[in-house]
Amino acid sequence: MTLEWGWFPDHADEMARLTADHLATAVPAVVLGLLIALPLAVLAHRVRPLRGVILGASNILYTIPSLAFFVLLLPVTGLTRTTAIVGLTAYTLVVLVRNTVEGLDAVPAKVREASRAMGTRPLRTLLTVELPLALPVIMAGVRVATVMSISLVSVASYIGYGGLGQLFTDGFQRNFPTPVVAGVALTLLLALVADALLVTVQWLCTPWRRGTSRQRTFMRRKAA
Amino acid sequence: MLELLKNLLSWLTSPAQWSGPEGIAARILEHLEYSLLATLAAAVIALPVGLLIGHTGRGAFLAVNLSSFGRALPTVGLVTLVFLAGGLSVWPVYVSLVALAVPVIITNTYAGMAAVDPEVKDAAKGVGLRGRQVLWQVELPLALPLIMTGVRLATVQVVATATIAAYVSFGGLGRYVFDGLAQRDLVQVLGGAALVAVLAVVADLALGGLTRLLFRGRPATAR
Protein backbone atom coordinates (compact mmCIF):
# COMPACT_ATOMS: atom_id res chain seq x y z
CA MET A 1 0.00 0.00 0.00
CA THR A 2 1.55 3.27 -1.04
CA LEU A 3 0.41 6.71 -0.07
CA GLU A 4 0.15 9.50 -2.59
CA TRP A 5 1.65 12.36 -0.66
CA GLY A 6 0.58 14.87 -3.29
CA TRP A 7 -3.04 14.17 -2.35
CA PHE A 8 -2.67 15.84 1.05
CA PRO A 9 -1.82 19.43 0.02
CA ASP A 10 -4.31 19.21 -2.88
CA HIS A 11 -7.14 18.36 -0.50
CA ALA A 12 -6.27 20.60 2.45
CA ASP A 13 -9.46 22.62 1.98
CA GLU A 14 -11.61 19.52 1.85
CA MET A 15 -9.96 18.11 4.96
CA ALA A 16 -10.53 21.36 6.86
CA ARG A 17 -14.18 21.43 5.77
CA LEU A 18 -14.73 17.80 6.80
CA THR A 19 -13.02 18.40 10.15
CA ALA A 20 -15.37 21.29 10.87
CA ASP A 21 -18.27 19.13 9.74
CA HIS A 22 -17.05 16.36 12.02
CA LEU A 23 -17.03 18.66 15.03
CA ALA A 24 -20.43 20.07 14.14
CA THR A 25 -21.84 16.59 14.71
CA ALA A 26 -19.70 15.35 17.59
CA VAL A 27 -19.78 18.40 19.89
CA PRO A 28 -23.57 18.91 20.00
CA ALA A 29 -23.96 15.18 20.66
CA VAL A 30 -21.83 15.34 23.80
CA VAL A 31 -23.46 18.57 25.02
CA LEU A 32 -26.92 17.12 24.47
CA GLY A 33 -25.83 13.87 26.11
CA LEU A 34 -24.65 15.76 29.17
CA LEU A 35 -27.90 17.76 29.38
CA ILE A 36 -29.88 14.51 29.36
CA ALA A 37 -27.48 12.47 31.50
CA LEU A 38 -27.17 14.90 34.43
CA PRO A 39 -30.86 14.92 35.46
CA LEU A 40 -31.15 11.18 34.79
CA ALA A 41 -28.10 10.47 36.94
CA VAL A 42 -29.34 12.69 39.77
CA LEU A 43 -32.64 10.80 39.61
CA ALA A 44 -30.85 7.44 39.65
CA HIS A 45 -28.74 8.61 42.56
CA ARG A 46 -31.65 9.91 44.65
CA VAL A 47 -34.38 7.40 43.83
CA ARG A 48 -32.97 3.93 44.40
CA PRO A 49 -35.71 1.94 42.61
CA LEU A 50 -35.08 3.91 39.40
CA ARG A 51 -31.36 3.26 39.50
CA GLY A 52 -31.38 -0.18 37.88
CA VAL A 53 -33.87 0.92 35.23
CA ILE A 54 -31.89 4.01 34.18
CA LEU A 55 -28.49 2.30 34.19
CA GLY A 56 -29.90 -0.77 32.44
CA ALA A 57 -31.63 1.25 29.74
CA SER A 58 -28.50 3.27 28.94
CA ASN A 59 -26.54 0.00 28.79
CA ILE A 60 -28.93 -1.48 26.26
CA LEU A 61 -28.74 1.63 24.05
CA TYR A 62 -25.02 0.95 23.88
CA THR A 63 -25.42 -2.58 22.48
CA ILE A 64 -27.38 -1.48 19.40
CA PRO A 65 -25.00 -1.23 16.43
CA SER A 66 -24.43 2.45 15.73
CA LEU A 67 -25.25 2.15 12.04
CA ALA A 68 -28.61 0.54 12.80
CA PHE A 69 -29.29 3.33 15.23
CA PHE A 70 -28.96 5.95 12.53
CA VAL A 71 -31.21 3.96 10.23
CA LEU A 72 -33.76 3.51 12.99
CA LEU A 73 -33.92 7.29 13.35
CA LEU A 74 -34.30 7.92 9.62
CA PRO A 75 -38.12 7.67 9.55
CA VAL A 76 -38.29 10.18 12.42
CA THR A 77 -35.62 12.74 11.64
CA GLY A 78 -34.80 12.01 8.00
CA LEU A 79 -31.51 12.52 6.23
CA THR A 80 -30.40 15.38 8.43
CA ARG A 81 -27.58 16.14 10.80
CA THR A 82 -30.10 15.72 13.63
CA THR A 83 -30.16 11.98 12.95
CA ALA A 84 -26.41 11.74 13.36
CA ILE A 85 -26.42 13.89 16.50
CA VAL A 86 -29.28 12.05 18.19
CA GLY A 87 -27.68 8.68 17.43
CA LEU A 88 -24.37 9.74 18.94
CA THR A 89 -26.11 11.29 21.94
CA ALA A 90 -27.65 7.92 22.76
CA TYR A 91 -24.18 6.40 22.81
CA THR A 92 -22.72 9.01 25.11
CA LEU A 93 -25.47 8.36 27.67
CA VAL A 94 -24.09 5.04 28.91
CA VAL A 95 -20.76 6.59 29.97
CA LEU A 96 -22.13 9.94 31.12
CA VAL A 97 -24.94 8.51 33.25
CA ARG A 98 -22.77 5.83 34.82
CA ASN A 99 -19.94 8.21 35.67
CA THR A 100 -22.22 10.89 37.06
CA VAL A 101 -24.00 8.38 39.29
CA GLU A 102 -20.65 7.02 40.47
CA GLY A 103 -19.36 10.53 41.09
CA LEU A 104 -22.40 11.45 43.15
CA ASP A 105 -22.21 8.16 45.06
CA ALA A 106 -18.62 8.91 46.00
CA VAL A 107 -19.49 12.20 47.72
CA PRO A 108 -19.09 11.43 51.44
CA ALA A 109 -22.43 11.34 53.26
CA LYS A 110 -20.93 13.53 56.00
CA VAL A 111 -20.27 16.35 53.55
CA ARG A 112 -23.83 16.20 52.31
CA GLU A 113 -25.19 16.12 55.85
CA ALA A 114 -22.99 19.04 56.90
CA SER A 115 -24.28 21.07 54.01
CA ARG A 116 -27.88 20.24 54.91
CA ALA A 117 -27.21 20.99 58.58
CA MET A 118 -26.01 24.46 57.65
CA GLY A 119 -29.43 25.03 56.16
CA THR A 120 -28.56 24.67 52.49
CA ARG A 121 -31.52 23.45 50.49
CA PRO A 122 -31.25 20.11 48.66
CA LEU A 123 -31.10 21.66 45.18
CA ARG A 124 -28.41 24.09 46.25
CA THR A 125 -26.48 21.31 47.99
CA LEU A 126 -26.61 19.38 44.74
CA LEU A 127 -25.41 22.30 42.65
CA THR A 128 -22.80 23.80 44.95
CA VAL A 129 -21.55 20.79 46.93
CA GLU A 130 -22.29 17.44 45.38
CA LEU A 131 -21.82 18.18 41.67
CA PRO A 132 -18.53 20.07 42.14
CA LEU A 133 -17.16 17.22 44.24
CA ALA A 134 -18.32 14.70 41.65
CA LEU A 135 -16.82 16.78 38.85
CA PRO A 136 -13.58 14.81 38.36
CA VAL A 137 -15.51 11.56 37.82
CA ILE A 138 -18.10 13.31 35.62
CA MET A 139 -15.33 14.91 33.56
CA ALA A 140 -13.68 11.52 33.14
CA GLY A 141 -16.98 10.42 31.61
CA VAL A 142 -17.19 13.51 29.40
CA ARG A 143 -13.69 12.80 28.11
CA VAL A 144 -14.56 9.21 27.24
CA ALA A 145 -17.87 10.29 25.65
CA THR A 146 -16.16 12.98 23.57
CA VAL A 147 -13.42 10.71 22.25
CA MET A 148 -16.01 8.02 21.51
CA SER A 149 -18.31 10.43 19.69
CA ILE A 150 -15.48 11.81 17.57
CA SER A 151 -14.56 8.27 16.56
CA LEU A 152 -18.17 7.22 15.91
CA VAL A 153 -19.13 10.18 13.70
CA SER A 154 -17.57 8.30 10.79
CA VAL A 155 -20.35 5.72 10.97
CA ALA A 156 -22.81 8.45 10.05
CA SER A 157 -21.12 8.77 6.66
CA TYR A 158 -23.76 6.28 5.55
CA ILE A 159 -26.39 8.96 5.93
CA GLY A 160 -24.11 11.69 4.59
CA TYR A 161 -23.05 13.34 7.85
CA GLY A 162 -19.92 11.36 8.59
CA GLY A 163 -17.51 14.28 8.66
CA LEU A 164 -14.06 12.78 8.19
CA GLY A 165 -15.74 9.40 7.73
CA GLN A 166 -16.67 10.64 4.27
CA LEU A 167 -13.02 10.07 3.41
CA PHE A 168 -13.37 6.38 4.30
CA THR A 169 -16.30 5.89 1.93
CA ASP A 170 -14.45 7.85 -0.73
CA GLY A 171 -11.30 5.73 -0.43
CA PHE A 172 -13.28 2.51 -0.20
CA GLN A 173 -15.29 3.17 -3.35
CA ARG A 174 -12.26 4.24 -5.38
CA ASN A 175 -9.94 1.59 -3.95
CA PHE A 176 -7.63 4.43 -2.93
CA PRO A 177 -6.08 4.21 0.58
CA THR A 178 -4.67 7.75 0.90
CA PRO A 179 -7.91 9.52 1.95
CA VAL A 180 -8.64 6.69 4.39
CA VAL A 181 -5.25 7.21 6.07
CA ALA A 182 -5.92 10.95 6.18
CA GLY A 183 -9.35 10.33 7.72
CA VAL A 184 -8.04 7.97 10.41
CA ALA A 185 -5.12 10.26 11.26
CA LEU A 186 -7.30 13.39 11.48
CA THR A 187 -9.90 11.59 13.61
CA LEU A 188 -7.19 10.49 16.04
CA LEU A 189 -5.71 13.98 16.11
CA LEU A 190 -9.10 15.56 16.71
CA ALA A 191 -9.81 13.15 19.58
CA LEU A 192 -6.41 13.87 21.11
CA VAL A 193 -6.87 17.65 20.93
CA ALA A 194 -10.41 17.48 22.31
CA ASP A 195 -9.23 15.28 25.19
CA ALA A 196 -6.38 17.66 26.03
CA LEU A 197 -8.81 20.59 25.97
CA LEU A 198 -11.14 18.83 28.38
CA VAL A 199 -8.27 18.05 30.75
CA THR A 200 -7.46 21.77 30.73
CA VAL A 201 -11.09 22.69 31.38
CA GLN A 202 -11.21 20.29 34.28
CA TRP A 203 -8.00 21.71 35.71
CA LEU A 204 -9.48 25.21 35.49
CA CYS A 205 -12.77 24.13 37.08
CA THR A 206 -11.28 22.32 40.08
CA PRO A 207 -8.73 24.68 41.64
CA TRP A 208 -8.93 22.80 44.94
CA ARG A 209 -7.39 19.72 43.35
CA ARG A 210 -4.30 21.47 42.11
CA GLY A 211 -0.87 21.31 43.65
CA THR A 212 1.94 18.92 42.95
CA SER A 213 1.23 15.24 42.88
CA ARG A 214 3.47 14.86 45.93
CA GLN A 215 1.26 17.24 47.88
CA ARG A 216 -1.81 15.33 46.81
CA THR A 217 -0.31 12.00 47.87
CA PHE A 218 0.59 13.55 51.21
CA MET A 219 -2.95 14.85 51.72
CA ARG A 220 -4.39 11.47 50.83
CA ARG A 221 -2.09 9.67 53.27
CA LYS A 222 -2.99 12.13 55.99
CA ALA A 223 -6.66 11.64 55.31
CA ALA A 224 -6.30 7.86 55.51
CA MET B 1 -44.86 2.78 13.30
CA LEU B 2 -47.20 -0.01 14.42
CA GLU B 3 -47.15 -1.42 10.90
CA LEU B 4 -43.36 -1.42 11.02
CA LEU B 5 -43.30 -3.29 14.32
CA LYS B 6 -45.74 -5.87 12.96
CA ASN B 7 -43.58 -6.40 9.89
CA LEU B 8 -40.49 -6.62 12.06
CA LEU B 9 -42.12 -9.24 14.24
CA SER B 10 -43.17 -11.36 11.28
CA TRP B 11 -39.67 -10.99 9.80
CA LEU B 12 -38.13 -12.20 13.05
CA THR B 13 -40.54 -15.08 13.54
CA SER B 14 -40.94 -16.49 10.05
CA PRO B 15 -39.41 -19.98 9.97
CA ALA B 16 -38.19 -19.50 6.38
CA GLN B 17 -36.11 -16.55 7.55
CA TRP B 18 -34.32 -18.68 10.12
CA SER B 19 -33.22 -21.68 8.05
CA GLY B 20 -30.72 -22.16 5.25
CA PRO B 21 -27.18 -20.89 4.69
CA GLU B 22 -28.40 -17.29 4.61
CA GLY B 23 -30.94 -17.72 7.37
CA ILE B 24 -30.85 -15.96 10.71
CA ALA B 25 -29.52 -19.03 12.54
CA ALA B 26 -26.54 -19.26 10.19
CA ARG B 27 -25.92 -15.50 10.42
CA ILE B 28 -25.95 -15.67 14.21
CA LEU B 29 -23.37 -18.45 14.12
CA GLU B 30 -21.16 -16.43 11.77
CA HIS B 31 -21.55 -13.37 13.97
CA LEU B 32 -20.62 -15.40 17.05
CA GLU B 33 -17.63 -16.89 15.23
CA TYR B 34 -16.21 -13.44 14.38
CA SER B 35 -16.94 -12.09 17.84
CA LEU B 36 -15.65 -15.01 19.86
CA LEU B 37 -12.47 -15.51 17.85
CA ALA B 38 -11.71 -11.78 17.93
CA THR B 39 -12.37 -11.46 21.66
CA LEU B 40 -10.34 -14.58 22.36
CA ALA B 41 -7.42 -13.35 20.27
CA ALA B 42 -7.64 -9.95 21.97
CA ALA B 43 -7.64 -11.60 25.41
CA VAL B 44 -4.61 -13.73 24.49
CA ILE B 45 -2.75 -10.55 23.50
CA ALA B 46 -4.07 -8.17 26.14
CA LEU B 47 -4.18 -10.23 29.33
CA PRO B 48 -0.41 -10.99 29.55
CA VAL B 49 0.40 -7.37 28.67
CA GLY B 50 -2.01 -5.99 31.28
CA LEU B 51 -0.80 -8.43 33.93
CA LEU B 52 2.83 -7.62 33.20
CA ILE B 53 2.27 -3.86 33.34
CA GLY B 54 0.27 -4.23 36.56
CA HIS B 55 2.79 -6.56 38.18
CA THR B 56 5.92 -4.60 37.32
CA GLY B 57 4.33 -1.16 37.42
CA ARG B 58 6.20 -0.31 34.23
CA GLY B 59 4.33 1.13 31.28
CA ALA B 60 1.38 2.29 33.38
CA PHE B 61 1.19 5.43 31.26
CA LEU B 62 0.78 3.26 28.19
CA ALA B 63 -1.93 1.15 29.81
CA VAL B 64 -3.95 4.19 30.86
CA ASN B 65 -3.71 6.02 27.56
CA LEU B 66 -4.10 3.01 25.31
CA SER B 67 -7.81 2.78 26.03
CA SER B 68 -8.26 6.39 24.99
CA PHE B 69 -6.40 5.69 21.76
CA GLY B 70 -8.50 2.58 21.16
CA ARG B 71 -11.72 4.54 21.59
CA ALA B 72 -10.50 7.27 19.26
CA LEU B 73 -9.58 4.86 16.47
CA PRO B 74 -12.50 4.83 14.02
CA THR B 75 -13.36 1.19 13.35
CA VAL B 76 -14.88 1.88 9.94
CA GLY B 77 -11.67 3.60 8.88
CA LEU B 78 -9.50 0.79 10.17
CA VAL B 79 -11.52 -1.93 8.46
CA THR B 80 -11.48 0.03 5.19
CA LEU B 81 -7.75 0.58 5.44
CA VAL B 82 -6.84 -3.06 6.14
CA PHE B 83 -9.26 -4.09 3.41
CA LEU B 84 -7.62 -1.80 0.86
CA ALA B 85 -4.16 -2.88 1.97
CA GLY B 86 -4.77 -6.60 2.13
CA GLY B 87 -7.50 -7.30 -0.38
CA LEU B 88 -10.57 -9.43 0.00
CA SER B 89 -10.12 -11.64 3.05
CA VAL B 90 -11.64 -11.93 6.47
CA TRP B 91 -8.52 -10.39 8.03
CA PRO B 92 -9.72 -6.78 8.05
CA VAL B 93 -12.65 -7.85 10.19
CA TYR B 94 -10.47 -9.61 12.75
CA VAL B 95 -7.80 -6.89 12.81
CA SER B 96 -10.38 -4.18 13.51
CA LEU B 97 -12.27 -6.16 16.12
CA VAL B 98 -9.09 -7.19 17.92
CA ALA B 99 -7.85 -3.58 17.81
CA LEU B 100 -11.15 -2.56 19.39
CA ALA B 101 -10.98 -5.12 22.20
CA VAL B 102 -7.27 -5.09 23.14
CA PRO B 103 -7.11 -1.60 24.73
CA VAL B 104 -10.26 -2.22 26.80
CA ILE B 105 -8.88 -5.47 28.22
CA ILE B 106 -5.38 -4.08 28.87
CA THR B 107 -6.70 -1.00 30.65
CA ASN B 108 -9.09 -2.93 32.87
CA THR B 109 -6.53 -5.64 33.65
CA TYR B 110 -4.05 -2.96 34.65
CA ALA B 111 -6.70 -1.15 36.72
CA GLY B 112 -7.50 -4.38 38.53
CA MET B 113 -3.84 -5.06 39.27
CA ALA B 114 -3.23 -1.48 40.38
CA ALA B 115 -6.17 -1.66 42.78
CA VAL B 116 -4.64 -4.56 44.71
CA ASP B 117 -3.73 -3.29 48.18
CA PRO B 118 0.08 -2.86 48.35
CA GLU B 119 0.02 -4.10 51.94
CA VAL B 120 -1.44 -7.39 50.78
CA LYS B 121 1.39 -7.72 48.26
CA ASP B 122 3.92 -6.89 50.96
CA ALA B 123 2.38 -9.46 53.25
CA ALA B 124 2.57 -12.08 50.49
CA LYS B 125 6.26 -11.30 49.98
CA GLY B 126 6.69 -11.27 53.74
CA VAL B 127 5.49 -14.85 54.11
CA GLY B 128 8.04 -15.87 51.47
CA LEU B 129 6.13 -15.89 48.18
CA ARG B 130 8.23 -15.23 45.09
CA GLY B 131 7.35 -12.58 42.53
CA ARG B 132 5.65 -15.05 40.24
CA GLN B 133 3.74 -16.64 43.10
CA VAL B 134 2.54 -13.22 44.24
CA LEU B 135 1.28 -12.58 40.71
CA TRP B 136 -0.58 -15.87 40.28
CA GLN B 137 -1.76 -16.53 43.82
CA VAL B 138 -2.42 -13.05 45.16
CA GLU B 139 -2.65 -10.30 42.55
CA LEU B 140 -4.48 -12.19 39.82
CA PRO B 141 -7.28 -13.56 42.01
CA LEU B 142 -7.80 -10.14 43.58
CA ALA B 143 -7.76 -8.37 40.21
CA LEU B 144 -10.03 -10.89 38.53
CA PRO B 145 -13.34 -9.05 39.02
CA LEU B 146 -12.06 -5.95 37.19
CA ILE B 147 -10.34 -8.09 34.56
CA MET B 148 -13.65 -9.81 33.88
CA THR B 149 -15.36 -6.43 33.64
CA GLY B 150 -12.88 -5.55 30.91
CA VAL B 151 -13.53 -8.78 29.05
CA ARG B 152 -17.31 -8.21 29.28
CA LEU B 153 -17.04 -4.65 28.02
CA ALA B 154 -14.81 -5.76 25.16
CA THR B 155 -17.19 -8.58 24.25
CA VAL B 156 -20.23 -6.30 24.09
CA GLN B 157 -18.34 -3.84 21.91
CA VAL B 158 -17.03 -6.56 19.62
CA VAL B 159 -20.46 -8.18 19.20
CA ALA B 160 -22.05 -4.80 18.43
CA THR B 161 -19.26 -3.87 16.03
CA ALA B 162 -18.96 -7.23 14.23
CA THR B 163 -21.65 -5.85 11.92
CA ILE B 164 -18.78 -4.30 9.93
CA ALA B 165 -17.91 -7.77 8.61
CA ALA B 166 -20.75 -7.27 6.15
CA TYR B 167 -19.31 -3.89 5.12
CA VAL B 168 -16.36 -5.74 3.55
CA SER B 169 -18.65 -8.37 2.02
CA PHE B 170 -18.61 -11.01 4.75
CA GLY B 171 -21.49 -12.52 6.75
CA GLY B 172 -22.80 -12.18 10.24
CA LEU B 173 -25.87 -10.25 11.31
CA GLY B 174 -24.48 -7.10 9.72
CA ARG B 175 -25.52 -8.65 6.41
CA TYR B 176 -29.15 -7.73 7.19
CA VAL B 177 -28.20 -4.19 8.14
CA PHE B 178 -26.13 -3.49 5.02
CA ASP B 179 -28.32 -5.44 2.59
CA GLY B 180 -31.39 -3.77 4.07
CA LEU B 181 -29.73 -0.37 3.60
CA ALA B 182 -28.89 -1.14 -0.02
CA GLN B 183 -32.41 -2.43 -0.72
CA ARG B 184 -34.11 0.34 1.31
CA ASP B 185 -35.69 -2.41 3.37
CA LEU B 186 -36.07 -0.86 6.82
CA VAL B 187 -37.58 -4.00 8.37
CA GLN B 188 -34.51 -6.03 7.47
CA VAL B 189 -32.16 -3.36 8.89
CA LEU B 190 -34.08 -3.14 12.14
CA GLY B 191 -34.36 -6.93 12.39
CA GLY B 192 -30.59 -7.27 12.02
CA ALA B 193 -29.94 -4.50 14.53
CA ALA B 194 -32.34 -5.99 17.05
CA LEU B 195 -30.67 -9.39 16.74
CA VAL B 196 -27.22 -7.84 17.27
CA ALA B 197 -28.43 -5.99 20.35
CA VAL B 198 -29.98 -9.16 21.78
CA LEU B 199 -26.80 -11.11 21.06
CA ALA B 200 -24.68 -8.46 22.80
CA VAL B 201 -26.92 -8.45 25.87
CA VAL B 202 -26.96 -12.27 26.00
CA ALA B 203 -23.15 -12.39 25.71
CA ASP B 204 -22.86 -9.84 28.52
CA LEU B 205 -25.25 -11.80 30.76
CA ALA B 206 -23.45 -15.09 29.99
CA LEU B 207 -20.10 -13.61 30.98
CA GLY B 208 -21.72 -12.09 34.06
CA GLY B 209 -22.97 -15.55 35.02
CA LEU B 210 -19.53 -17.01 34.42
CA THR B 211 -17.98 -14.34 36.65
CA ARG B 212 -20.42 -15.12 39.44
CA LEU B 213 -19.59 -18.81 39.05
CA LEU B 214 -15.87 -18.05 39.33
CA PHE B 215 -16.35 -16.05 42.49
CA ARG B 216 -18.72 -18.43 44.20
CA GLY B 217 -17.74 -18.77 47.83
CA ARG B 218 -15.84 -15.51 47.94
CA PRO B 219 -17.01 -13.01 50.52
CA ALA B 220 -19.10 -10.26 48.92
CA THR B 221 -16.47 -7.62 49.64
CA ALA B 222 -13.89 -9.43 47.52
CA ARG B 223 -16.05 -9.70 44.42
From TrEMBL, chain A:
It is found in: Cell membrane; Membrane. The keyword Protease does not apply. It holds the Pfam family BPD_transp_1. InterPro entries: ABC_transp_perm/SBD, MetI-like, MetI-like_sf. Residues 19-199 form the ABC transmembrane type-1 domain. One of its GO terms (biological process) is transmembrane transport. It is a multi-pass membrane protein. The chain crosses the membrane at residues 23-45, 52-73, 79-97, 133-160, 180-205. Keywords: Membrane, Transmembrane, Transmembrane helix, Transport. One of its GO terms (cellular component) is plasma membrane. CDD domains: TM_PBP2. Belongs to the binding-protein-dependent transport system permease family. This is Glycine/betaine ABC transporter permease. It comes from Streptomyces angustmyceticus.
